[in-house]
Specification:
Protein name: non-specific serine/threonine protein kinase
Distance between the termini: 34 Å
Number of helices: 8
Number of domains: 2
Mean pLDDT: 91
Low-confidence stretches: none
GO molecular function: ATP binding; protein serine/threonine kinase activity
Keywords: ATP-binding, Kinase, Nucleotide-binding, Serine/threonine-protein kinase, Transferase
Order of helices and strands: EEEHEEHHEEEEHHHHH
Pfam family, one: Pkinase
Strand content: 15-25%
CATH class of the largest domain: Mainly Alpha
Number of strands: 9
EC number: 2.7.11.1
Radius of gyration: 19 Å
CATH topology of the largest domain: Transferase(Phosphotransferase), domain 1
Structural class: alpha+beta
CATH architecture of the largest domain: Orthogonal Bundle
């Protein structure tokens, strides 16, 4: 799917959901059938930005998986790009676990395994298509009304060419960036596994993975595997703790692949 003709008038804005460094996201209604969707409005000021947006649309349009947000269409209007996707009404995984924390609750063991399976399934599909997400984190995992997870925000995703197994651009969110990215300035599929591991670790401990007052301290804590809080073994099974810990192994070669995670007996 390429960027289509201007369809701005086909949609009615309902409310702004959030804004980030890449654009502003709105809940919208399609006038033709009343279907609720979202679009991200992205200001396009220079040619390089437009090239980047078109690459994101190209990647999104090729993806069809139950755990990846589905692209509806993309169009340009008044020098802004609009990327229209399905609506995930449950909010982000970050807001989900923070609500738990605010009420003194924890993610259950059953929920944890389900989140792990669904996020990893989406990542496995990306990797099978030689796509690195490069920004997996609780804020970029959405939940539908029935609790199904949807990986979103492929703004900085990278499609690797045949024979090209690494990306070398320093992008992503520092807290979830793999140790090899900060030391070797290159990353491959294990970097996404690391970020999924940190994401699950975070929702189980109800806090961000690392305490750090500077980027240098953050990098040191990552290289030493020094997390802010360990997963409570009195609350969660050793099976769950072990698989999450393996995913955030400092050595990328020792992390399991998405396929290896999905054959775990607890995920069958």
């Amino acid at each position: 799917m390429s960027v289509s003709e201007d369809h701005f008038d086909l949609y009615e804005g309902i409310k702004q959901i959030y804004s980030d460094g890449f654009g502003v996201v709105y809940k919208i209604k399609r006038k033709t059938d009343g279907k609720l969707l979202v679009y991200k409005k992205i200001s396009c000021l220079i040619e390089e930005e437009e090239i980047s947006i078109r690459k994101e649309v190209e990647i999104l349009s090729s993806l069809h998986h139950e755990n990846i947000i589905e692209l509806v269409e993309a169009f340009k209007h008044d020098n802004n790009f609009y990327i229209v996707t399905e609506l995930a009404e449950g909010g982000t995984l970050q807001s989900f676990y923070r609500k738990k924390r605010n009420t003194g609750e924890f993610i259950t063991e059953e929920q944890a395994w389900r989140f792990l399976k669904e996020i990893t399934s989406g990542v496995a599909y990306l990797h099978q298509n030689r796509i690195l997400h490069r920004d997996i984190k609780p804020q970029n995992i959405l939940l539908t009304a029935d609790g199904t997870t949807k990986i979103t925000d492929l703004d900085i995703a990278k499609k690797l060419g045949t024979g090209d197994d690494f990306a070398s651009t320093m992008v992503g969110t520092a807290m979830y960036m793999s140790p090899e990215m900060t030391t070797n300035r290159k990353q491959s599929f294990p970097a996404d596994i690391y970020a999924v591991g940190l994401t699950i670790h975070e929702i189980l401990t109800l806090q961000v993975p690392f305490d750090a007052r500077s980027n240098i301290q953050l990098m040191q804590n990552k290289l030493n595997g020094k997390v802010a809080a360990e997963i409570d073994p009195s609350r969660y099974s050793q099976d769950l703790i072990d698989i999450v810990n393996s995913m955030r192994n400092v050595n990328p070669e020792q992390r399991p692949t998405a396929e290896q995670i999905l054959v775990h007996p607890r995920l069958q």
